[in-house]
Amino acid sequence: MTAEIDPGTSDTGELWHTGDSGFPLADREIALVDLLDRLLAGGVVLTGDLTLSIAGVDLVHISLRALITSVRADHPSPM
Amino acid sequence: MPKRTMRSLLAAAALTGALAACGGEDDDADDAEESKSGESGDTDTAATGGGCPPGAPSVRLGWFAMMPPDDLAGVHGAGVRLVRRGDLGAVVSPVDAEEFEESSLATRLEDLSWLENLARSHNGVIDWLAQGAMVLPLRLLTVYRSEERIDDVLAVNESEFSEALDRLAGRVEWGVKVFAVEAEAVEPSAEPPADESANPGRSYLRRKQAARQSQEQGWSHAAQFAAEIDGALSELAESRSQYRPQSAELSGTTEQNVLNVAYLVPSEDRERFVALVRELQVTRPRCRVELTGPWAPYSFGLAGTPSPGREAESADRT
Amino acid sequence: MADKPSDHPEDDEIVGRLGRAIENGVTELGNRIDTDRDTVERDLMKLVLTIIELLRQLMERQALRRVEQGDLSDDQEERVGLTLMLLEDRMTELRERYGLSAADLNIDLGPLGPLLPR
To answer: How far apart are CA B246 and CA B253, in angstroms?
Structure first.
C-alpha cells in the first residue's frame, strides 16, 4: 500500500526555525549542530535492518581532520 | 538488473481517519503529472523535483518511512513515499544498498558534508510533513530492506506509535541553548610589569592562572543562569529532554555551551514560551541564550533509554 | 577526579623535555612543508598544530594545577613557566606563519569539553 503524499493544509501551524532574532530561517540556515543533536541522538529508535549503531557516534572524535577542514567556511576541504 | 535498494525510514505519521476511510489518495496518485510547488513554501526541498498529485487530501502522518516522493528530495534526491497501514503511515526514501551498507556507512559518517546533506534532507522531509500532519521523527539511518519490512514495523509497533502520536499531538519542540560569554583573553604578548621580569616564568603562570580563574567564574555564572533559565522554561513546558552540551569546535563558536535542552510545549503556548525566553535573556546579559524551533518532536518520541548525547528526559508533567 | 598531590619532582623536567620535543618537531615539519602551494599540506599543518596546541594546553593546565596545589618549588615553577611561555610564543609564531587564528586551533577545554575530563 503505497501512495504519494501531500500534507495539504496545516493543522499544527506553520513550522519554521528561528535564531535569536525570532525571524524564520530558511532550511539552509538551521545550524548543523542542532540538526545532528536531534537526528543522531534524538528521534525514535527502531531496530532497523541495518545493524550499524549510530547512537555512539561522537562527532568530536570522528575525525579531527574532518572537523578542521570541513566545518569552517574559510577553510574549505580540499576534496 | 535493478540496483539493489533498501528503504530508509524517516519518520512515522498518523493518517487521519477520514483519509483512511475515503482512500482518495491512491486514486489521485495515478493522475499526478505536474509538481505542486509552493505547497510548503518555507522549505527549499518542497519546491524542488516533481510534485505531489494535485488535489491529494491532506495526510496526517505519524510515521515517515522513506520512499521517493516526487515533491521532496528525500535521501540524495530519491524522494519520499508513503507506506500506509491502517491509519498509520510511514514515510520512506529508497537508498542504494551499497552506499548504506554497514561497512561503508561507518566511513561516510566521518564525512561531515555527506552527513550534513543527509541530515538536512531528512529534516526537510520532517518539517514539510509536520506542516500538515502529526509527525514522529525517527533517528537518522533507520534502514529496512523492503517495504514489506516496513509494513511489519508498522504492525508490530502500532500501539506504541499511536500512543506517542496522541501524546504529541498539538505540541511542538523548542530548543534552548545557553552559552557562557567569553572572558577577556589575556594577551600573550603583553609586557609583564617591570618588577616581575626577574621571574618571567612564574609571572607567566600567574597571568594564566588569573585568566583561568576569570574564565571559570564566567562559566560558573553561566551555569547558574542556565539552571535558572531551565527552571523557568520547564514551568511552561510539558516535557523536557536534555542533550549533551555542544562542541564549540563543531558549532564554529568560541563560546562554551553550558545548556542544551529541548522543551515540549503545547502549540497554543508558543508565544508565551518565546516571550519568556527573550525575557530570560534580557535579564541575563552575561550569558547568551539561543532559541531554535519549532521542531517536530525529535526529542520526545518513544520513551526509553536515552542514548549517549541525549542525557535525560524528564517525566511528563501533568 | 582530584589529583593526588604526591611528590613528583621530575614533572617539570617532563614538561621541559616535552616542550622541547614539540618545538623541534614543529620546526622540522614547518621547514619541510611549503604550505603556500599545497592546501592538503596546509590542512595537515593545521591538524598537526591543533594537536600540538591541545598538548600545550594540557601541559599548561596540569602545571597550573600543580602550582595551585603547591607541588612545585619556586625554581621548578620558574622553569615550567618559562618553558610554557616560550612554547606559547612559538605556537603564536607558527599560527601566524600559516594564517591560523587561535580559534582555528582551539579544542574545547572548558568544564564541559568533551576531549578532556575535568
So the answer is: 10
Does C101 reside within a domain?
Answer: yes
Instruction: Write the Ramachandran bin of B225: left for phi over 0, alpha for psi from -120 to 50, otherwise beta.
Output: alpha
Q: Number of C-alpha atoms within 13 angstroms, CB side, residue B164?
A: 30
DSSP H or E run through B279: helix B270-282
- DSSP annotation of A38 reads I
Q: What is the pLDDT of residues A35-51, one digit of tens each?
A: 888 888 888 877 777 65
**C37 belongs to a structural domain:** no
In the numeric block, which cell numbers belong to residue B291?
532559541
Q: Answer yes or no: is the ipTM higher than 0.90.
A: no
Domain spans in chain A, listed from the N-terminal domain onward: 17-70
Q: How many CB atoms lie within 10 A of CB B29?
A: 19
Query: Does the beta-carbon distance from B188 to C103 stay under 8 Å?
Result: no
pTM above 0.80, yes or no: no
Q: Give the total number of structural domains in chain C.
A: 1
Query: How far C97 CA sits from the closest chain A CA (Å)?
Result: 16
Q: Does C63 touch chain B (CB under 8 A)?
A: yes
Task: State how far the alpha carbon of C80 is from the alpha carbons of C20, C62, C84, in Å.
Answer: 12, 11, 6
Cell numbers linked to C14: 617532563
Domain containing residue C96: 51-106
Q: Where are the domains of chain B?
A: 5-169, 172-313
Please name the residue of chain A whose CA is at the shortest distance from the CA of residue C38. A78
